[in-house]
Design brief:
It is a single chain. By secondary structure, this protein is of the alpha/beta class. The chain has one domain: NAD(P)-binding Rossmann-like Domain (Rossmann fold, 3-Layer(aba) Sandwich). It contains eight helices and seven strands. The radius of gyration is 17 Å and the shape is globular. The relative contact order is 0.15.
């Protein structure tokens, strides 16, 4: 059974791999044998994740990039292709949040969050998937969504809208890429305290979250590794595409 999750010889690109959740998933992929490109705006943080992976016997390299423009994404793809020759796995893990109430929202903040969470994901996927197709390289694309994509949450209007878009893009591209042997799925994490959401986690907010989470706790970053490895492996999930995989402690099952 362990062979189902063996990623030896695979190249994985983790966009946002310098973050808490992206970094954890990168470590999980590396632990199963994948060679991982850790991509982030902050090179120092990306290098720290890379050092941890290497310290555990894995293979990784840090890359600095801003995915807000098509040109920067193309340059990133060129750099990673020069390093690895190509890739088999793409994880879109970049994310940005804000607690601004709806009536206080302005166009700059809307654009900023959408640029990172949805626009960046779309054009990163466009660039990286096109090269996979050109190389006739089959593989897996994993997008990181959110529980707010299916159950809109108060205080995070723009974030919820952007992540709903991620779900739609995931299922659309699953259909588009299937003829090329490229699977596209998304992970829907529940509440995993990270840099982007700590600013909205007041005591009152935490109590609300726990009251709607049957497992009555936050997720640990390591608990996303299994889902990422499963969706990355053609052996384990070769007939799985267009799927939105919940890792949310039961949040999506709660009603009253």
């Amino acid at each position: 059974m362990t062979n189902l999750f063996d990623l030896t010889g695979k190249i994985a690109v983790v966009i946002g791999g310098n973050g808490v959740l992206g970094g954890s998933m990168a470590k999980g992929l590396a632990a199963q044998g994948a060679e991982v490109a850790i991509v982030g705006r902050n090179l120092e943080k990306a290098e720290a994740v890379t050092a941890e992976i290497k310290g555990d016997g894995g293979k990784a390299k840090a890359f600095q990039a801003d995915i807000s423009t098509k040109e920067s994404i193309e340059n990133l793809a060129n750099d990673i292709e020069a390093w690895s020759g190509g890739w088999d796995i793409l994880v879109n893990s970049s994310g940005k949040n804000s607690p601004t109430p709806f009536f206080d929202l302005d166009t700059d903040e809307w654009d900023d969050i959408m640029d990172v969470n949805l626009r960046g994901l779309v054009f990163t996927t466009q660039v990286f998937a096109k090269r996979m197709v050109d190389q006739e390289r089959k593989g897996s694309i994993i997008n990181i969504s959110s529980v707010s994509s299916t159950t809109p949450l108060s205080k995070v209007f723009t974030y919820s809208a952007s992540k709903a878009g991620v779900n739609s893009v995931t299922q659309f591209l699953a259909r588009e890429f299937a003829p090329y042997g490229i699977r596209v799925n998304a992970i829907i994490p529940g509440f995993f305290p990270a840099e982007q959401n700590r600013k909205i986690l007041s005591d009152e907010r935490i109590n609300q979250i726990m009251s709607h989470t049957p497992m009555d706790r936050f997720g640990e970053p390591e608990e996303l590794q299994g889902a990422a490895v499963y969706l990355a492996s053609d052996k384990a999930s070769g007939f799985v595409t267009g799927h939105l995989l919940r890792v949310d402690g039961g949040f999506g099952s709660m009603t009253i």
